[in-house]
Amino acid sequence: EGVQCEKIGETCRRVLYATLPLAMGVEFSSLPSVNAWFVIEYSLYAAGFAALVGYIMVEQNLIAKRLLNWGWLRGMGKISYGLYLYHVIVFEILHKDFVPWLIQAGTSRTIAIVAKWVLAFPLLFGIAVLSWRVFEKPILNLKQRLAPSARPGQKGSQVGSSSVGFEIPNV
Fold this sequence. Notes:
- The structure is a single chain.
- The chain is 75% helix and 4% strand.
- The relative contact order is 0.07.
- The protein is mainly α and 171 residues long.
- It contains 5 helices and 2 strands.
- The termini are far apart.
- The protein has a two-stranded antiparallel sheet with strand order 1-2.
């Protein structure tokens, strides 16, 4: 099992080292702006980050494992769905509107792309935190109120046939 984990870790490391630089190269290149490059770039990012996650999971003595247990990083798990949900919208708006506006204003393409990334992260995190507080947390709190009672010996009212087992909680 240990040898197999080492092989998986090595494969993940190689994929990571190959894909992320390629993705950044596509991002900063002067290739024509076509959907194919967009798909290639994000596929490379996805493969690279999947390899990173695999590598962290397999390797035992990584500083990354200790870092991921830090409280503020664990807290980011709460807003991770918002990050996932809104990242494409934020990056697309900035890429299609903000970058061309900067280039038209005389900024180099490289500086415009770096500015996009610098602006995107605080904007995305702000939207994700707002989403957590306004939508996600209240909805998750509803789950606790609407879930069947978990108190020992107390069951909610049965609805429908007994084979379905759907319960209405006692309030």
